[in-house]
Amino acid sequence: MIQELPKISTSLFPKSDFPNLLTEVNGQALAYLDSAASAQKPHAATEATTAFVEHQYANVHRGVHTLSQLATDAYELVRDQVKVVLNAADRNEIIFTKGCTESINLVAQSFARPLLQPGDEILLTELEHHSNIVPWQLAAQASGAKVIAARIHDTGELDIDDFKAKLNSRTKIVAFTHISNALGTILPAKEMTEMAHAFGATVLIDGAQSGPHAAIDVQEIGADFYVLSIHKMYGPTGVGVLYGKLNLLEAMPPYQGGGSMIRSVSFEETTFAELPAKFEAGTPNIAGVVGLGATLDYIAGPNWNRDSWVRRVTEIGNYEAVVREYGVSQLAEIEGLSVYGDAEEMAGIISFTLKNVHPHDLGTILDQHGVAVRAGHHCCQPLMKRLGVPATARASIAAYNDLEDMDRLASAVSAAKEIFA
Amino acid sequence: MSWDLRDLYQETILDHQKHPRGKGALENATHTATGYNPLCGDKVTIQLAVNDGKIDEIRFDGEGCAICMSSASMMTVSLQGQPVSDAEELFQRIQKFLTANDESAAMEDIDTLGDLAALGGVRRLPVRIKCANLPWHTFKSAIQGETNAKTE
Lengths: 421, 152
What we know:
Chain A is α/β, with parallel strands linked by helices and 421 residues long. Chain A contains 13 helices and 17 strands. Chain B has one domain: Alpha-Beta Complex (Sufe protein. Chain: A). In chain B, 43% of the residues lie in helices and 18% in strands. Chain B has helices at 5-8, 11-18, 66-79, 84-99, 103-107, 126-143; strands at residues 31-36, 43-51, 54-63, 148-149. The N and C termini of chain B lie far apart (30 Å). Chain A binds chain B through residues 26-28, 357-361, 364-365, 368-369, 375-377, 381, 384, 390-391, 415, 419-420, and chain B through 1-2, 5-6, 8-9, 14, 17, 39-43, 63-67, 125, 128, 131.
């Protein structure tokens, strides 16, 4: 496979566009391989956000004054952009939250909890991270429903037969990750959604890892809910997206009460605002949402549209796959190293262990070589148990990583092996 | 590198990691506690057989990084056969050594620590201090009759 690799001399996103990537760590140039935890931010987007805060900022959806209107326009423009990113049918299907985790909790509490009856089932997969497990457990505990997980194969691929076998008429919710944060496995979202719908279940797809790495089409997949984590898409922290089908969102009660989400309030009765305001109580993260818009502009270039967005993220996904393949080939040279996750479809994540070296020791040694990886359970304790390891080291690849980062990773892992030899 | 990784992974540490002392289960234990660091998954169980105020036997079991496992191994060597009061006093010295903000205060007792001085490398890596400290807090919980240790 290696000889087929195209030559990559520079990363797809220039490192110089991301000031933090030029930071020295422990006297070494930084090889940042922890973007699955949080991605670095392009200067162009932080600069645009600062310009907005300094020149256009005011609260949104409130004032009649000029600045409030400017801020509202900037904020609402990003809703249209996210609609394009997800190919949603209607802009009112896009809700801004404070993060992917809040998006899932919103659906668990406002949609699932009133729906669930004792004996009902919520079907997840063994790949899920804690934020796509715990909100469902809370909803299940409150309603007497059960949380069930579909198995995976040793390759990290979903056991689709087990998934199918666990679907039944009591299955009310099916929630799964689009791309596994711990292994990089890509799940067959459309196929799984169709299977779930055949049993009348409602489907939530966790796009925490897919946002900046793959083209997403919620209509083609048929997803009922789809959630995004913006800080993992090179955007600001404190912003998440919830996509929900219009009829579902319209029927759901509000998640939180407050300003913006009301039509009229008296002490006797409150009527709620229309979508999307119904789910955006209080002053939102205005600068964060505007920063998201600037980040999308950075990713896709000026005047982007659905076609150019899809082309760009497809290019990013393909590029990261090439870097991953090279990285895996370099690591494979190291005796005693095991890579977890060997599915047909893999995103830019390399999860690995080194014989006789605990992932935390590996993480510390790599850090001293300027190589930043995540070492631990990746908020996936059930998955680690399934794989029979307490933890792994994880290198995650973004569009600003290059082959040299992979060389640095392999050489730092060799140095760790040396210390423990 | 700003400092040598060998300051952290000293021979003593690596030796205890590869050849752990006092590892396994203890029959007739009078005190047992388990410490768990949810951040990294390190898990240590400490068992003691205490008679007449003396630690007759001490064992550890569990899984974790080299720092945590070697700290536990060294601890069993240090505490085996010691009066409980001496063990508690050593616990305090270790706390000062690992966590005192003031470097000179931390180093005050270093000559009395023997092999345990090798744990000092974690002082430069705040996230790893808990790895070294987990077995000690678990010991402290065990001797106090608690079954679960906290490192906070």
